[in-house]
Design brief:
Length: about 260
């Protein structure tokens, strides 16, 4: 495994009672890049993510991270290695403040996650780092708000902040712009670009405009198999990819230029 490849899958297969959801997927994610996993509904993208984070066990194949075989490791071991999926630790606590949400993630990283009986003041030492992270994602001014009061796009920014608190080597973002209006999509797209500056991001994303503007590399799945991979310009002209999207992608892909 080349040192510039942070994540690799070899012949990854997941079967559910005879149905092959992921079929011989060979994926290579380069260190320090944004890699997008795309494909029509039912292509196997989320199943692939669940295999990488060990929410599902592969039927066959190998997963390597930083040159180490992690195929049989548990989700907590994977997270400790630095593979962090946004929802793993960031389904936000709606009645806690924005700052407190980030502080919970920091406690998890420091191994004090379950010391909730400690005096709140004993956690104040984490506040400067919380504020740094919130500032990084443009949420410093919202630190004292309850998470439930944040607009939708800002909630996703908070999820990214809590993910960053875990100091990930590889961030897995599952549909980061799903359900957003244009303005929020732009904000979150720029945020992903910013946080990816010194780390690796693997994202599942439906919005081709987002993929086209920030992904360094793209893998396209259909029926659980890789049908194309490469740079956006190359993938967006691939006849098999356009056919997989039954014309709708044709418009989406062209519209993203």
């Amino acid at each position: 495994m080349s040192s510039d490849i942070i994540l690799e899958t070899r012949g990854l297969v997941k079967e559910f009672k005879g149905f092959v959801a992921v079929n011989e997927v060979n994926l290579q994610v380069k260190r320090g890049t944004i890699h997008a996993l795309i494909g029509p509904n039912g292509a196997g993208k989320t199943t692939c993510f669940n295999l990488l984070t060990k929410f599902l066990e592969p039927t066959r194949g190998q997963i390597l991270f930083d040159g180490q075989d992690i195929t049989r490791e548990r989700p907590a071991q994977i997270a400790r290695r630095g593979v962090v999926r946004s929802f793993q630790i960031s389904s936000t606590f709606p009645h806690m403040s924005v700052l407190e949400n980030v502080r919970v993630a920091l406690q998890q990283k420091l191994g004090t996650a379950f010391s909730f009986w400690k005096s709140e003041h004993s956690l104040d030492k984490l506040n400067p780092r919380c504020m740094e992270l919130l500032d990084h994602v443009g949420l410093a001014e919202f630190a004292s708000l309850q998470a439930m009061e944040l607009p939708y796009g800002r909630k996703r920014a908070l999820e990214i902040a809590t993910t960053l608190a875990m100091e990930p080597k590889l961030m897995l973002l599952d549909e980061p712009t799903q359900g957003m209006g244009h303005e929020d999509v732009d904000m979150v797209t720029q945020l992903i670009k910013k946080v990816a500056a010194n780390r690796t991001v693997l994202m599942v994303e439906h919005n081709m405009g987002v993929v086209g503007s920030i992904a360094d590399s793209i893998t396209v799945l259909q029926f659980g198999q890789v049908i194309a991979e490469g740079a956006y310009e190359e993938v967006s002209r691939n006849a098999q990819v356009l056919e997989a999207y039954m014309g709708s992608a044709d418009e989406a892909l062209q519209g993203a230029h």
